[in-house]
Amino acid sequence: MHMLSNIIFYSLDKAIRQYRKLAQANIDRAGIAITIDQWLVLRVIQEHDDLTQTDIAERVLKDQASVARMISLLLKAGLLAAEPLLHDGRRSRLRVSEEGLRTLDAVQPVVLNNRLIALDGLSEEDLALMRPMLERIYSNCVAASQTAATAAPVITLEASEQHSS
């Protein structure tokens, strides 16, 4: 039996959760009314203003319902603007508003400082080693998910009924 603290995924999750807590506290302390997740959504839209909500959700690693709620809040707060598409009146393109750009500018130094705090004592070499390892874990899981999705179910109802008779 392995202790929880020896499981790498427990350590990763613990580090990420503590980083998010620190990052949010520092954004709040700076008096900026935005959550880490909303900031991520704004950043993604700033970088790519032609994405669907599904695309945005994939990039910020959140479910579509959460992203839809965040977009709604960002629109209400005036940080995002929705411009109707000329060729398709039912759809609109999300753009970061002037207020949204000011918010992103205000958050940027806080984010950079958060990273400095969190990565203190880690060299560029450490990070260069860590990145491909984390990417490998990610791609292993993606590949396994895709394999599992296409694989036939292991036990069918008929097979389980035959064993019980």
Count of strand segments: 2
Q: Report the helical percentage.
A: 55-70%
Radius of gyration: 21 Å
The strands making up the biggest β-sheet line up spatially as 1-2
Determine the strand fraction and express it as a percent band. 5-15%
**How does the helix and strand content classify structurally?**
mainly alpha
Oligomer state of the chains in this structure: single chain
SSE string, helix = H, strand = E?
HHHHEEHHH
Low-confidence stretches: none
Shape: globular
Largest sheet features: 2 strands, antiparallel
N-C termini distance: 37 Å
Provide the fold topology.
Layout: H1 8-29, H2 36-47, H3 53-60, H4 64-76, E1 80-85, E2 88-96, H5 98-118, H6 124-150, H7 157-164
Antiparallel strand pairs: 1-2
Helix pairs in contact: 1-5, 2-3, 2-4, 2-5, 3-4
Describe the structure.
The protein is mostly helical. Helix content is 67%, strand content 9%. The chain is built from seven helices and two strands, in the order H-H-H-H-E-E-H-H-H. The protein has helices at residues 8-29, 36-47, 53-60, 64-76, 98-118, 124-150, 157-164, and strands at 80-85, 88-96. The protein has a two-stranded antiparallel sheet. Helix 2 crosses helix 3 (53-60) and helix 2 (36-47) crosses helix 5. The longest helix has 27 residues, at 124-150. The mean pLDDT is 89.
Give a short overview.
The chain is 67% helix and 9% strand.
Main attributes of the structure:
7 helices; 165 residues; globular; single chain; mainly alpha
